[in-house]
Amino acid sequence: MVSEIFKSEVGASGRKETGRLEALSDGIFAIAMTLLVLEIHVPVVAADESFAQAILEKWPELLAFAIGFFTLLVCWINHHYMFEAIHKTDGILLLLNGFRLLVVSFTPFATALLSNYITTSNEQDAATVHSAQLLRYGIGYDLPLVLCMPTRLCTVEIAATPIKQV
Fold it and tell me: Range of 150's domain?
């Protein structure tokens, strides 16, 4: 039974078999990127207050949004390029990709911490949580590449090059 999980998803035609995994991944990336904007709240500006000043006071939220969005964008681009080379899946790759998606789905929370605490005495703790998130991204990206090389899930062109350079 357990060995069934780790069978390769190989079609008889030899064509790419990662479409469902890529679609799920794209959806989770899109949702996480969208959730980031929910942490930016519209300021309430009284008649005697400056609208520009109220917007400028939102800089922690806007900065955290930009950092989170571009981090996810770079991760999605890397994910896209990785799956240009991966043409088959197996249970291990599905689990590792699931870990990556777990990390992606945690991003709005880590970004919200950064936004809420960057101007407080807890800024180091918030930055540590966010930095650990970046480390998890790296692990989530590298593990499938390490798996891909020995199991021939990747095309030959990219499988060896990035890993040997590291």
Answer: 17-165
